[in-house]
Design goal:
five-stranded mixed sheet, 12 strands, elongated, 14% strand, alpha/beta, single chain
Length: 412
């Protein structure tokens, strides 16, 4: 008995009259889509459609459109993963609200000091030989910190303005060289103002150049017949120079025949307005020494030393080399509330020995505006000896024409 087998077409599905579709072989993806057609959301259907390629018996060619979508999706996901924060930044993002913060793509380096790095390395390298190296680094770092502190804590010293009147005499070269070598040892800034009468000698200028001290060589032009005390006019010439050029510093009258210690010049820098100290003096008889200057309670002046009856009428018993003052008093009277705007000068009309007190009375009102140095005024820092050689013949031009000529007078 013959049998008839009706084969099913692999490409076409027959549709029967009643509208039913015969059973056909479906692919796994088609089964998955048919099962999830009613349960998946539209977004999930879109993702499933991209990742799971739909094989149809009708179209057997490759889909370029879906492959392009996949590449773009993977590129976008990789870009997001590459820009996503990790490690410490991830913890910071957890602590902050991302909705109220801005994303910044700038990488900010972390600045750490050398000291912190050395301490961190030392903690990580305990038990190793490298710890010795870290201790050396710490020593170097402390040394650098001390050097930096010295640089930034540097305070400039006050300028010393040393005024020295001089004149031609036998021991002038000796006195100027001795004082110049002392000033050479004083810490700068030091300005040495040397004043001569009528003309500046070449010999004095040569000594000033060799001392290597900053100096100004001035000349006092006064008629010798009208000059009572040459030192007064020479000092006034220096005061006019300081006032005219507004030199800032501490003014000190240092005669060339006195003896000074380095400690004196260091103490002078501490003066605010007016400072004074005791001076050791050799009496006229040269058999004893006397003390002239302030009596101090700490740095407060409470009295004066004096031994000469003729000078007891003085208001301030101070030697010319026993005080110093701020130079701004000369050219800035409003700063110090001076009652008078007249220039401060030494007076040639007063009696001998009263030039010091009349000059000081123009600077201060009383002892409350003075400072005593050193505290207690118990130390003598300079001497006034009066060792002038009056019998020596001063050679012209500072040079002896004949070395065999006698320069000392004989009393035999």
């Amino acid at each position: 008995m013959a049998s008839i087998r009706r084969t099913l077409s692999p490409h076409h599905d027959r549709v029967y009259q009643n509208g039913s579709i015969p059973l056909s072989i479906q692919s796994p993806s088609q089964k998955f889509l048919s099962n999830t057609k009613t349960t998946l959301s539209p977004l999930r259907k879109f993702l499933v459609g991209i990742f799971i390629q739909k094989h149809s018996r009708k179209n057997n060619h490759f889909s370029w459109k879906k492959s392009l979508y996949r590449c773009l999706l993977f590129f976008f996901l990789g870009f997001l993963l590459g820009m996503a924060p990790f490690n410490n930044d991830l913890g910071e993002l957890k602590n902050h609200d991302l909705r109220n913060s801005d994303f910044a793509f700038e990488i900010k380096p972390q600045f750490l000091s050398i000291k912190q790095n050395v301490e961190n390395v030392a903690d990580r390298s305990r038990g190793n030989d490298f710890v010795v190296g870290t201790e050396k680094l710490k020593v170097v770092e402390k040394g650098r910190e001390n050097e930096d502190r010295k640089i930034f804590d540097f305070v400039p010293l006050k300028q010393l303005i040393v005024v020295t009147p001089t004149y031609n005499r036998a021991l002038q070269a000796y006195y100027l060289n001795r004082l110049g070598q002392v000033l050479r040892l004083v810490r700068p800034p030091v300005l040495w103002i040397v004043v001569e009468m009528n003309a500046a000698s070449m010999e004095t200028a040569d000594i000033l150049r060799k001392t290597a001290v900053m100096y100004r060589h001035l000349v006092c032009s006064k008629n010798l017949t009208n000059v009572k005390d040459r030192g007064v006019h020479q000092r006034n010439t220096a005061l006019e120079h300081i006032e005219g050029h507004r030199l800032d510093g501490v003014v000190y009258f240092a005669d060339d025949d006195n003896i000074y210690s380095l400690e004196l010049f260091e103490k002078i820098r501490e003066i605010n307005r007016f400072g004074t100290w005791p001076v050791g003096m050799l009496a006229q008889s040269k058999s004893k020494t006397i003390l002239e200057g302030p009596v101090c309670n700490g740095s407060q002046v409470i009295g004066w030393h004096t031994n000469e009856k003729s000078k007891r009428l003085r208001r301030f018993h101070v030697d010319m080399s026993g005080f110093a003052f701020n130079s701004t008093i000369l050219w800035d009277p409003r700063r110090w509330h001076r009652p008078s705007l007249d220039p401060i000068r030494q007076l040639d009309t007063v009696k001998e020995g009263f030039q010091e007190t009349t000059f000081i009375e123009q600077i201060v009102e009383d002892e409350s505006q003075m400072e005593g140095f050193p505290p207690g005024c118990h130390r003598i820092m300079n001497w006034h000896l009066h060792l002038e050689a009056r019998e020596l013949v001063y050679p012209k031009g500072w040079m002896l024409q004949k070395n065999l000529d006698a320069v000392l007078s004989s009393k035999s």
